[in-house]
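look at this record:
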Amino acid sequence: MDGLDARVPVISPRRPFRDWVSTFGALSWSGFRRYATYRQATIAGSFTNTVFGFLRCYVLLAVAAGAAGGRPGGYGAEQLASFVWVGQGLLTVVSLWGWTELADRIRSGDVAADLLRPVPPIVGYLAPDLGRAGHAMIFRFLPPLAVGALFFDLYAPSRWFTVPLFALSIVLAVVASLGLRFLVNATAYWLHDARGPIALWTLSAGVLAGLYFPLRFLPDWLAVLLWVATPFPGLLQTPLDVLVERDPAPVQLGLVALQAVWATALITAAVFVQRRAERRLVAQGG
C-alpha cells in the first residue's frame, strides 16, 4: 500500500484520553473527506437550497408586511430574512433526512462487523457525522448565506456572545440530530425494516424543527410544549432564534442549555438502545 497510511489507532491503557481524542479526530476527518468527494452533489445541493431560500424568504417577508405591527411572532423583517437563509444553510449541516446507513447495515447483517471495531457504534457514527457537518458548514452553509446577504438585508447580532453561542448551538443540534437518526434507524433491530419509522421521521422532523415556518408563529402554549417535551426545536429553531436574538440574553442561554440536555439524553438513549440490541443479536444467535 505505497503512499497510504494503513495504521489503525490503538487505544493504550496508559494514555486512554489522548488516544480517544486521536481516534475521534481521525474518524471525524474521515467523515469530512468522504463528503468532500461528492463535489457535483455539493454544488447541486447548494444551488437547490439557494432557490428555495428565495421562495421561503419572499413568503415570510410577505407575512411580515401583512402582520399587525410588522413583527409576526416577534420577528422583524431582517430577522425573518436571516431565519430563512441561515436555516437553508443549516438544513444540510444538521442533516434531518436521508441517513439510513445504520438501518441498511442492520438489514444486511453488516452491523455485526461494527461490534468488532475498537470504538462503540454510536461513536463510530457520531465522529464522522461531525466531520460531515464541518464540510457542510463550509460548502453548504456559506454559499446560500452569501447569496441571501447579497439580495436581502440580514440581521447582524448585537451581543458579543451571540456568535459563539450560535456555534455551540450548531454542534449540539448536530449531536441531537445524530442521536434521533440513530434511534429511528435502530428500530430495524426489532422491525427488521425501518422504512416506516424513517418515513414518519422525514414527514415530521422538518415541521417540528421549525424548517418550514418559525415555531413562534404557533400559540405560545404549543411552542413551549414542543420546546420542553420534544427535542425537535433544538435541531433548527433554537440555533436560529439564538442568532437573530429573538429573545433576551437569559432566554438565549436557557434555550441552549435545554438543547444540551436533550442532546445528552438522546446520545444516552442511543447507547442504551444499542446495548439492548446487542443482547438481542446474541439471543438470536447473530
User: Anything to note?
Assistant: Residues 16-283 form one domain. The CA atoms of residues 130 and 202 lie 21 Å apart.
